[in-house]
Every structure is written in C-alpha cells, then in structure tokens.
Amino acid sequence: MRYELYYWPTIQGRGEFVRLALEDAGAAYVDVARRNKAGVAAMMKLMQAKAGTPSFAPPFLKAGSLTIGQTANILQFLGARHDLAPKSEAGRLWVHQLQLTIADFVQEVHDTHHPIGTSLYYEDQKGPAKRRSAEFRKERLPKYCGYFERLIAGSGGPFVTGRKLTYADLSLFQVIEGLRYAFPRSMKKFERDIPKLIELHDRVAALPNIAAYLESPRRIPFNEDGLFRHYKALDK
C-alpha cells in the first residue's frame, strides 16, 4: 500500500513522528503537501470536508479508504501493520500509552516558547516564555526524561519495552533530537543524567533506514516555525 501523509511542508512538527515510522518501515508514502502548492490545497480541502472522517488538524494519513488523524492514532495503526508494536493487546496498549505521554511532553516543550497563545508571536510573550522555560528545564524535563530513563533501565533490553524496537523508541529519538536543538546548553549538562535514553537515541539513529533518512533531503531541518525552537534567551 502507498500511503499519503498530510502535514505542513516546511516543518518537522508532529508529522515527523509519523515520517520516522514510515521511513523505518521502508513504507511507500507520499508527503503530499511537500510536492507543490496543490498539495497544501488538497490537505486543507480534506480537513474542511463535511462528510467522512475529516481531521481537525494535520498530520493525518490516508491508507486506502481510511483517513486517520492524530499522531498517536496514526502510529498505533502503522505499528500494527509494520511490526513496530507488540503483538499482544496489552503490549499494544502500553506502547500507545507511552506515545500519548510523549505527546504530553512535546506539548510542554512547545509551550516553553508559546506559553500564552499559539496565535501570538514569540516576540509577544518573551517574558512568560522565559519563566515557563526555566520551570520546564528545572522540573518538567527531568520528570519526563527520568520516567523514560527508568523504563529503559528496567525493560530488560535496549529499547523502552525490551528487546524489540517500537514506534515509541522512534518518537523518543525525535524528542532528544528536538531537545538538543531547542536547549543545547541545558541538554549538554543534563544528558549525563539520562545515559539509557541517550543510548536509545544513538541506537535508533544507527538503524539503516533511519540513518539514510537523516542524511536525505526528506528530513526537514529544525527551524523556528516548528514544535522545537531555539531561542537563546530560553536556554540559560
């Protein structure tokens, strides 16, 4: 099956978690909105549809007659189809739970630079962003990363659920990549406290399909329009 992925064409954002799963699986897919302006128009048209199962926002994935929205929901679907999730129901639910926790974490990262409202520019909320980022670096970053560090240490294997790679591992790789971009100064000091999580990141980066993807033009560089943004004032 050839998938159609719909997401904003110039940022990694939440769509990147889906791209990583598709790339690792070696799945055939089209990043629709990146092809041309008509792709963006097609994405907006599908979102505004009155019938069917239109998504509130991208990313969403078309797979045959299915249109699937929400990052964690898409990954749950792809995980079952491409051996990126456990076979048992309990295992699948556990990985889905982990992905939802990652989604919470990513939202908190986003809120460091947009603590008041997404419709405002960063420049309109610099003061609150600085306070929010300080609290995030001191409290929330260690809490989330410590949780996943503990899970990896107790998993009995190199990945968060044990010996087998899941889409949650791919997503944790992306989180570390994003945190390094957004908070390079803080992460340089903090990474010594999360060695298992860093080892997982490096293990995912070395996967053949992921390594090839990271070196390809399909990997959009981080920038100040995405979820993970670097502002020097927020990394002190």
Give a summary of the structure in a few sentences:
By secondary structure, this protein is α+β, with helices and mostly antiparallel strands.
Secondary structure elements and their pairing?
Elements (H helix, E strand, L loop, with lengths): L2 E4 L8 H11 L3 E3 L5 H11 L12 E4 L2 E4 L1 H11 L7 H25 L12 H28 L13 H16 L1 H7 L4 H11 L2 H7 L22
Parallel strand pairs: 1-2
Antiparallel strand pairs: 1-3, 3-4
Mind explaining what this structure looks like?
GO terms for molecular function: glutathione transferase activity. Residues 88-234 form the GST C-terminal domain. It comes from Rhodopseudomonas palustris. Pfam families: GST_C_3 (PF14497). Residues 1-86 form the GST N-terminal domain. This protein has 236 residues and is of the alpha+beta class. The protein folds into two domains: 3-81, Glutaredoxin; 89-234, Glutathione S-transferase Yfyf (Class Pi), Chain A, domain 2. The protein has nine helices and four strands, in the order βαβαββααααααα. It has helices at residues 15-25, 37-47, 71-81, 89-113, 126-153, 167-182, 184-190, 195-205, 208-214, and strands at 3-6, 29-31, 60-63, 66-69. It has a four-stranded mixed sheet, sandwiched between helices. The protein starts with a strand and ends in a 22-residue tail after the last helix. The model has no long low-confidence stretch (mean pLDDT 97).
